[in-house]
Amino acid sequence: MGGNHSQKIVSEIFTLLDPDKSGSLTEEEFKLFLYAISEEKELEGITLPNNIKQIDRDGDKLVSLRELIEYFEKLKLSTEKLYVIKESIVNALDAPYAVGNGLPSDGYSTTEGGFEEDEVVDGATRTVSERKSEGRAGGEGRGGAEEAKVEGKATMMASERETGGSEKKLREEEHELGEKGGYLGPVWHAQILPPEYNNRKHCLSNGLLKPRRPRPQIRSTEFFRLLHKTKDGLWRFRTGLAGLNGWGGLNDLCLESITYKKKGVLGGKIVRSWISESEEKKNTKNKKKKEEGGEGEEEDDTPPVFPEEAKRKGFSVRATLRLPKWASIGWAQDSPGHVWWYFPAQRKVRFGVGMIEQHRRFLQRTNTDEPIAVRVHQFAHRYSQGRRKGETIKDRVVYHAGILLEWDHKRHCTVIELAYLNGISGYGGKSNWVADRNSGRPALYRAMPGVMKMPWIDTRAEIRCIDIPVTGKKGFEEYLAKYNGPGLRFLDPKVSASSDVHLSHRKQTNIMRYLCNYILRDGKYDENFRNCQDFAADLFGFLSGLPPDQCKPFHAVCRLTYTRKTYMFLYDPISPRPPQE
């Protein structure tokens, strides 16, 4: 490789991978680079790096622009090959991130509150929902209405409006089918598109499907190529690190059915072109038939295929898939608990009970004393609706609440809040507690492991912990004031209660354990009975030790339905110990 033009292309590649302009690529960012080029057929036969050590010459576990240029010069790649690498990275990144870096949007239209999403039905497109989110971030809302609802939000089950009355029966059958092979986890739906499908609403200018859509999408050729039958008769869909439609958390699913809507004179009906059946259910049917004098059913080995009618008419179909059972309570099998902690100084997001031991090892490795919680504050705010949109009556009573925790080292504080599951990872890493929320690809999102990235679910909850660069209550109030006002982030922010932390065991890893216990004991989210204000009141009361009449949800409406549940922080629900005799 030679010439200024080639170096310019490498510089553009580097910029794509380093949007925060830190001047170096971390190991996580380098893995994104490897993933982006790993399956590019036009690069076959070229010796490409398989780990960071092959480029990192100074041993600092970072890749500088100079190191990347030197490596590509050594490979002597043509300008065309460099363009292939650049295009692969663009396709691997989120479309909004590509737009933010000055790349063409390829028809990917954005709104003030989110992304425009249309649904494919019989080859045409139509709007899924008109709900927009203005001024909200990452599924955060009041304790009672987590309102960051980007239109086209992910749903775990199909929408009733799309399928009518026959959907209820289909859901019951899908529930039965989930009880097999450990795949008892959440249900997801994906849109399977014909190979030749090309619509600017869903495709980039080069014809590739847009990544990370609210309802995941995939071409039929790729979907059925990645399906494999297991020994116990399940059809398993595995994608590796890439995930379904770029959602890293959707990488190991069990196919349960393939359906599509067939239009008729009197309306549409659901056609099930393929449906799986558990061995248990199959054996029960055969036993019953034999008891009635029959010979039982032969095993049905018909593999799932793209329906002939869909091929002929060129419309999409819906695949119903289910994650493993452990996915109901965590992002990884060995680290249960929908709790995550963002450490900006480390560029790390750790999650689940596994983060406790990970953080202990980090403290030992860096010879750092473990922080101790010393002060706790309960706060609340409304969300700014944007300059062009006034507040409704409901908006004026919708408050989001959380906790600010002060540490003995006085270097930073931590915001802790409960909100929608995957509300940040499914919304491009946009949180009100990071300075670069409105950048193309926030540092928080880049730090999140791929397994956490899935469309959000507004009936399940997660607990978020984010270290912020303030040292106490005064600094936090200044942060709230900085982003207070129409068109910004907050309206009417206030710290409603403060106290010393009186809990005996109050080190940072103790706090992690309490939060994991809480969410593992009850992972639901409910607008009226299980919301952010309830959680904030519980955590404030638990840490402060103050009497119940001083630890209540912020708004009077939430106090009417509030039930104190501080006991949930104390007990490990995963491995209960048997009573002593």
Q: Care to describe what's here?
A:
The chain is of the alpha+beta class and 581 residues long. 27% of the residues lie in helices and 20% in strands. The chain is built from 16 helices and 18 strands. It has helices at 3-17, 27-38, 65-75, 79-92, 95-100, 160-163, 166-177, 220-225, 279-291, 308-313, 354-365, 443-447, 473-482, 508-521, 532-544, 556-561; strands spanning 24-25, 63-64, 118-121, 124-127, 187-193, 217-219, 227-229, 235-238, 252-264, 267-275, 317-322, 339-343, 348-351, 373-383, 400-407, 413-421, 457-468, 490-500. The strands form 4 sheets. Strands 5, 6, 7, 8, 9, 10 and 11 form a 7-stranded mixed beta sheet that branches. It has a 7-stranded mixed beta sheet with strand order 13-12-17-16-15-14-18, sandwiched between helices. A hairpin with a 5-residue loop joins strand 7 and strand 8 (235-238). Helix 2 packs across helix 4 and helix 11 (354-365) runs antiparallel to helix 14 (508-521). The longest helix is centred in the N-terminal third of the chain and has 15 residues, at 3-17. The radius of gyration is 25 Å and the shape is globular. Residues 94-135 and 141-181 have low confidence and may be disordered.
